[in-house]
User: What shape does this take?
Amino acid sequence: KKSVLSVRPMIEADAEILRALQARALTFKEDFTAQTTSSLLWSLTRIRSGRILNRQLVAALEESAIKNCQSFRPDTLVIVLWSFAKLQHTISSEFFETF
Assistant: This one.
């Protein structure tokens, strides 16, 4: 029996919403800009559970960073690097060679 004050249903609903949002974002990966990449990566660091994180989206964001390497300002590049570290994403050698 669910309690009226229980937050569990809310947390489960939030997880479903976050998964759906990440899947939807992935469909726009060809349109990611440097700013989009930076913003999405930062927002992914706010997800507290690794089970909710879409690793395909993180990989697509790395590809976007490589594709848009000339468009990054220093502050957005710092956010990208910090986010990859926070998400424990192993950055490819191609990423380092590009930058």
About this structure: Residues 18 and 59 are 17 Å apart (CA to CA). The chain has a mean pLDDT of 88. Helices lie at 8-26, 34-45, 55-67, 74-86, 93-98.
